[in-house]
């Protein structure tokens, strides 16, 4: 019987993996491996006027005519916490055309195009303040 679920990019390859706990049993890790050519954009939000972790911020990523939104939130399932960075699949696109973040404070940051395959740190009112590849960690 499932008890809790949390989602995170455990292997730092740009896609979300799942950790499922069971009632009185083992923990299960389910890794996601994207098909060749599919990519993502990851956003780590840092609040200044809003809370430091950006909890409650809504990010919308647009690729062509398609858009997706995610909210930074606490908790994800019974006694579980998913990671705070937001992950957006962009398919085979080389970039996200536009990223908009609406912070809990009401401030809005509109970013231009962001390259896929990257994790961006976005600071409230300052835009992109950091960037690193979302690639698998090597031993």
Task: Write up what this structure looks like.
With 139 residues, the protein is mainly β. Helices cover 0% and strands 50% of the residues. The protein has no helices and 13 strands. It has a four-stranded mixed sheet, with no helix packed on it. A four-stranded antiparallel sheet has the order 6-5-9-10, with no helix packed on it. It has a three-stranded antiparallel sheet with strand order 1-2-3, with no helix packed on it. The N and C termini lie far apart (35 Å).
Chart the SSEs and their pairings:
Blueprint: E1 2-8, E2 17-22, E3 27-30, E4 39-46, E5 58-63, E6 66-71, E7 86-91, E8 95-96, E9 98-102, E10 108-111, E11 114-115, E12 118-123, E13 127-133
Parallel strand pairs: 4-12
Antiparallel strand pairs: 1-2, 2-3, 4-7, 5-6, 5-9, 8-11, 9-10, 12-13
How far from one another are the termini?
A: 35 Å
Q: How much β-strand is present in the residues?
A: over 45%
**The biggest beta sheet, please?**
4 strands, mixed
Corresponding CATH architecture:
Sandwich
Report the principal-axis shape.
Answer: globular
CATH topology: Immunoglobulin-like
SSE order: EEEEEEEEEEEEE
Strand order of the largest sheet: 7-4-12-13
In total, how many beta strands?
13
Low-confidence stretches: none
Class derived from helix and strand content: mainly beta
CATH classification class: Mainly Beta
Oligomeric state of the chains in view: single chain
Q: Considering DSSP H and I runs of 4 or more, what fraction of the residues is helical?
A: under 10%
Mean pLDDT: 90
Taking all Cα atoms into account, the compactness measure Rg is 16 Å
- Counting structural domains, the number is 1
Helical stretch tally = 0
